[in-house]
Amino acid sequence: MPVHPDTHAILSTAAGPHRQRCAGARNLDEAHLLALVLGIGITPLRLESMGANLLDSTIAFDLAEVDTAMLGGINLSPVSSFLGSRGLLLGYDVALSSAGVMARVPEGSHDSHLTGRDLLDAAVALFGRRHEPSYPFHPGSLVPCAHRVFRARGPVELFATVGVGIPKERREQPCILMEDVGVLDGTLGEPSLSRAVEQSVHVVAEIQGVPLERVLVGLRRREVPADHLGCALVACPYFLLPGEVLAPRVPA
């Protein structure tokens, strides 16, 4: 079962209060979506000499929120990492179409071609980027997010990664997220890290008694230069859609 069998019904009731902006989902027992977002923010160490170490750290975090998909300006509320039966996975169940409306992902694309990167790209397509926002969150929204964060001084290479396990029975079992952030070094390469994340999803699925259909893994990595601070962030929001993407656009 590649997509949620109730995709159309859930999508039709997943509208938030705003016409052109997303909103945080307040009740995860009702219709909502989940997006996968990874970001790594990098800032010069310019404030610690003034005795304000935490300010550089906060700036790096804020830059991570807008490194890829636009998550700036939200009040991030950390939650655990399960997508329930009333949730759709952005990029897997539905995605923003070329016509600018939210549509079901064609089932044929799930056979072998869909990757974790596609899910990350779907978030960028919907939310937009820092200087090119599409349908970002309403300013100040309280947004529940599956969340991990790690900071380190350069020179270092940081990574942020997320794996999502798709259950065989979407009406009865949750999708499972596993997040990881840290430093890539000579003993930890990208392939082994992706395998570890995938294996961790299977372990949690076994603990929770959730038979899985498949696991998808996405990863982001960036070099942090000397005299800079990097922040690796996984922030996967549970959210409601703008009304505009749920209805065909009317020509002016």
Report on the architecture of this protein.
The chain has a single domain (7-246), classed as Pyruvoyl-Dependent Histidine Decarboxylase, subunit B (Pyruvoyl-Dependent Histidine Decarboxylase, Chain B), CATH 3.50.20. The N and C termini lie far apart (40 Å). Strand 9 and strand 10 (132-133) form a beta hairpin. The model has no long low-confidence stretch (mean pLDDT 91). Strands 1, 2, 3, 4, 6, 11 and 15 form a seven-stranded mixed sheet that branches. The protein has helices at 7-12, 53-65, 116-127, 190-208; strands at 23-24, 32-34, 38-44, 75-79, 82-83, 87-89, 94-96, 102-104, 128-129, 132-133, 142-153, 156-167, 175-184, 212-224, 228-240. With 252 residues, it is α+β, with helices and mostly antiparallel strands. The longest helix has 19 residues, at 190-208. It has four helices and 15 strands. The radius of gyration is 18 Å and the shape is globular.
